[in-house]
């Protein structure tokens, strides 16, 4: 029998979330962000379902090559650009756009040889202080780019540090810093991640770069995905593989630190941290068993987790367990486990069986 841990991917929900981005930023073209295996959803299947996207954004050159070889003809942007001069030949051969964020990357381009013209996205640091050229370095970077024989169109981008906080003024400050830095320079612009697509219209510009919203999780702190018009794409499911009645006072799981508060039924589901379910999800974290809410009991193991089924005395081996997704927002599980939806979704393990519909 196949182990029942399974990720159901709802491609209809994916397309509706994409349309939500389109509707929120109607004048912008969309770079669908697909890095980390499309946030754990499966790179090629997601790209094929999003054929309405104007471009795809990935980090790994291998992801870009996979997309091209799978027949994706859209613009593909390498969001962190080159890692070594050896990447140049592949970027040329597979018609990839490069983000250029540092003098080191400019030097790699200068040392290598562009065998065809390559479009570049010059990344400007407007306040996140992670990657990008400071505004006063833009002219020098452009001069080096234009001195290269193979530079095609140059576009400009920046990334926000706090767009998920709707009350933070730092996003407005970054938008203004970007405008000031570019002045009247010609060239298309891109600023917005998912949070800015939904909450910062002033950041929409020529291209938006939604990621997490496509997959149906909330990009904005304290706003639920449902309230933002987003639907979950991944439902992580498994089944009960064992049940046993336990007595009040019995200890359940590793460490024995969860003690049955009453006589109860404990179910064991075939999924654990080896599948990407967060080990730090505490007892009490919600799960759905047969569509009804129940809660974790004891520590999550590598392959299993225990569920307190005191109000489902009729539960049986083989019954469905939903860990997140349909009816149980991944954001809720992330909050319980002290992390974010991005980490949970992109961390779903290779043992999990994927089903697309
Ligand atoms: C450069 C860049 N743009 C866009 C995104 C998409 O962000 P989000 O998933 O929050 O929409 C990311 C993801 O972190 C990114 O690194």
List all distinct small molecules, including ions and cofactors, that are bound in this structure.
pyridoxal-5'-phosphate
Gap between N and C termini, in Å?
22 Å
Number of β-strand runs: 18
Q: Can you summarize the main beta sheet?
A: 8 strands, parallel
Q: What is the C-alpha radius of gyration, as a whole number of Å?
A: 23 Å
Structural class: alpha/beta
Low-confidence stretches are none
Widest sheet, order of strands: 8-7-6-5-4-3-2-9
Tell me the overall shape: elongated
Spell out the helices and strands N to C.
EHEHHEHEHEHEHEHEHEEEEEEEEEHHE
Task: Report what the structure shows.
This protein is an alpha/beta fold. 27% of the residues lie in helices and 24% in strands. The strands form three sheets. It has an eight-stranded parallel β-sheet with strand order 8-7-6-5-4-3-2-9. The chain has a six-stranded antiparallel beta barrel with strand order 10-13-16-15-14-17. Strands 11-12 form a two-stranded antiparallel sheet. It starts with 5 loop residues before the first strand and ends with a strand. Pyridoxal-5'-phosphate binds at residues 33, 79, 159, 193-194, 209-212, 219.
What's the short version?
With 357 residues, the chain is α/β, with parallel strands linked by helices. It has eleven helices and 18 strands.
Topology (elements, then pairings):
Layout: E1 6-9, H1 11-24, E2 29-33, H2 35-40, H3 43-49, E3 55-58, H4 61-69, E4 75-78, H5 87-93, E5 96-100, H6 103-111, E6 118-123, H7 138-147, E7 151-157, H8 170-182, E8 189-190, H9 194-199, E9 207-208, E10 234-246, E11 251-252, E12 258-259, E13 264-269, E14 286-289, E15 292-296, E16 305-308, E17 320-324, H10 330-337, H11 341-346, E18 353-356
Parallel strand pairs: 1-18, 2-3, 2-9, 3-4, 4-5, 5-6, 6-7, 7-8
Antiparallel strand pairs: 1-10, 10-13, 10-17, 11-12, 13-16, 14-15, 14-17, 15-16
Residues 33, 79, 159, 193-194, 209-212, 219 line the site of pyridoxal-5'-phosphate (PLP).
């Amino acid at each position: 029998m196949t182990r029942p841990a399974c990720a159901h991917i709802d491609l209809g929900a994916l397309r509706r979330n994409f349309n939500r981005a389109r509707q929120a930023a109607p004048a912008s073209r969309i770079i669908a962000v697909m890095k980390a295996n499309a946030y754990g959803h499966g790179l090629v299947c997601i790209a094929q379902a999003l054929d309405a996207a104007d471009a795809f954004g990935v980090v790994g050159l291998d992801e870009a090559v996979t997309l091209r070889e799978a027949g994706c003809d859209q613009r593909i942007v390498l969001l962190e650009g080159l890692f070594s001069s050896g990447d140049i030949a592949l970027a040329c051969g597979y018609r990839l756009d490069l983000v250029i964020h540092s003098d080191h990357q400019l030097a790699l381009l200068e040392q290598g040889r562009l065998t065809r013209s390559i479009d570049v996205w010059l990344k400007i640091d407007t306040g996140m202080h992670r990657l990008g050229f400071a505004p006063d370095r833009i002219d020098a970077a452009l001069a080096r780019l234009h001195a290269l024989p193979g530079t095609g169109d140059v576009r400009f981008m920046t990334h926000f540090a706090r767009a998920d906080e709707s009350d933070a003024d730092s996003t407005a400050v970054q938008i203004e810093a970007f405008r000031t830095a570019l002045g009247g320079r010609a060239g298309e612009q891109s600023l917005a991640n998912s949070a800015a697509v939904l909450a910062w219209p002033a950041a929409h510009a020529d291209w938006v770069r939604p990621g997490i919203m496509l997959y149906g999780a909330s990009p904005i702190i304290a706003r639920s995905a449902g309230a933002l018009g987003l639907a979950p794409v991944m439902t992580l499911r498994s089944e009960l593989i064992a049940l046993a009645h336990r007595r009040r006072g019995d200890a359940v799981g590793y460490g024995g630190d969860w003690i049955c508060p009453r006589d109860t039924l404990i179910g064991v589901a075939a999924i654990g941290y080896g599948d990407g379910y967060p080990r730090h999800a505490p007892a009490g974290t919600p799960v759905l068993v047969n569509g009804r809410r129940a809660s974790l009991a004891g520590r999550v193991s590598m392959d299993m987790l225990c569920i307190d089924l005191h109000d489902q005395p009729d539960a049986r081996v083989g019954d469905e367990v939903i860990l997140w997704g349909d009816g149980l927002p991944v954001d809720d599980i992330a909050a319980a486990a002290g992390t974010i939806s991005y980490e949970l979704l992109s961390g779903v393990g290779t043992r999990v069986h994927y089903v697309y519909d």
